[in-house]
Specification:
This protein has 265 residues and is an alpha/beta fold. It has helices spanning 15-37, 48-58, 91-98, 119-133, 191-195, 210-218, and strands at 4-12, 40-44, 73-77, 79-81, 110-111, 146-149, 174-179, 184-189, 200-204, 237-243, 258-264. Strand 9, helix 6 (210-218) and strand 10 form a beta-alpha-beta unit. Helix 1 (15-37) crosses helix 2. The longest helix is centred in the first third of the chain and has 23 residues, at 15-37.
Length: 265
C-alpha cells in the first residue's frame, strides 16, 4: 500500500458543470463496478451540490439516466439528520425528490437510515442493515463501490463534526453523533468505513469553501478541528470535483482542468 495519499481534483467553471461532471462520474464508476462485480453499492450525502447531480441522473433529457444500471444498484446514505423521512431537512427526502421518485430503482434497493427513531437505535439498526446486506462477519467492514461526500465550511464531512465523538470512533460502522454546534443529533458512517470504500470523492462548490478546502488539503494536519482530513481511502486515491470558486486557493490545474496533490497518509 502506498505511504502517500494522492488527491486528484477536477475543476469545473460553475456549479452546473460540476453537477454534469459528477453525474458522468457516477455513471462511469457504477458501470465499472457492475462489470467487475455484477452490482454497485453507492452511498450518498445530502446537500445542494449532490442534489443537482442526482437531478441530472433522473432527467430523461440528460444522457445519464439511461446509462445507469438501475437494476444492479443499491443506494445507501452516508449520514442523516435525526428527523422524519418527510422532513425538509431529511437527506432521504432530498434523494427521493431529486432521484428516487423518477427512476426505476426498486424500493428494496434503497437503504435509508431510520433517523426518526432514538439516535442510538437508529445507528444500531443501520449498522444491522449494513451487516445483513453486505453479509459481513465479525469485524468486517462494508466496502462501498462509490461513496460521495461534501464538506462544510467548518471542515466537517458526513456528520463527523469538529470536536465531536465521531472524530474518535474506530470500532463501529455507524454512530449516533451529538453535534453541539447544531444542538442536534446526526447518524453517520464512521470514517474507517468511509475510507474502506473502493472510490471516495468530494463534491464541493462555492467561494465560501475555498479557504477550508485549501486548509484541509494543503495545511497542517489537525483532524480534531478539520475532520475532513480523516478521509484517506485505503486505495490511496481521493477524488475531488469542485467548481472554480471552491478550488480558487488550490494549485493551478493542467489544461484539462485536473490537478494532483500528494500528502502523507
Amino acid at each position: 500500500m502506498s505511504k502517500n495519499l494522492s488527491i486528484k481534483y477536477y475543476v469545473e467553471p460553475d456549479k452546473a458543470a460540476l453537477a454534469g461532471r459528477a453525474a458522468q462520474y457516477f455513471v462511469e464508476m457504477a458501470n465499472e463496478a457492475v462489470e467487475a462485480r455484477g452490482r454497485v453499492r453507492f452511498a450518498i450525502s445530502g446537500g445542494s451540490t449532490p442534489t443537482a447531480a442526482l437531478e441530472l441522473l433522473a432527467d430523461s433529457a440528460a444522457p445519464w439516466r439511461n446509462r445507469m444500471p438501475w437494476d444492479k444498484l443499491d443506494l445507501y446514505f452516508v449520514d442523516e439528520r435525526c428527523v422524519a423521512p418527510d422532513d425538509p431537512e431529511s437527506n432521504y427526502r432530498m434523494a427521493r425528490e431529486a432521484l428516487l421518485d423518477h427512476v426505476p430503482l426498486a424500493p428494496e434497493r434503497v437503504h435509508r437510515i431510520e433517523a426518526e427513531l432514538d439516535p442510538e437505535v437508529a445507528a444500531a439498526r443501520y449498522e444491522s442493515e449494513l451487516r445483513n446486506t453486505f453479509r459481513l462477519e465479525g469485524a468486517e467492514s462494508p466496502r462501498f463501490d462509490l461513496l460521495a461526500l461534501g464538506m462544510g465550511a467548518d471542515g466537517h464531512t458526513a456528520s463527523i463534526f469538529p470536536h465531536t465523538a465521531a472524530v474518535h470512533e474506530l470500532g463501529r460502522l455507524v454512530t449516533a453523533n451529538h453535534v453541539p454546534q447544531k444542538d442536534a443529533w446526526r447518524i453517520t458512517l464512521t470514517w474507517p468505513v468511509i475510507n474502506h470504500a473502493r472510490s471516495v470523492f468530494f463534491l464541493i462548490a462555492g467561494a465560501d469553501k475555498a479557504s477550508i478546502v485549501s486548509e484541509v488539503f494543503t495545511g497542517p494536519r489537525d483532524p480534531e478541528r478539520l475532520p475532513s482530513q480523516l478521509i484517506k481511502p485505503a486505495s490511496g486515491i481521493l477524488t475531488m470535483i469542485l467548481d472554480k470558486d471552491a478550488a480558487a486557493l488550490l494549485p493551478a490545474t493542467d489544461g484539462d482542468g485536473c490537478g494532483v496533490l500528494e500528502r502523507e497518509r
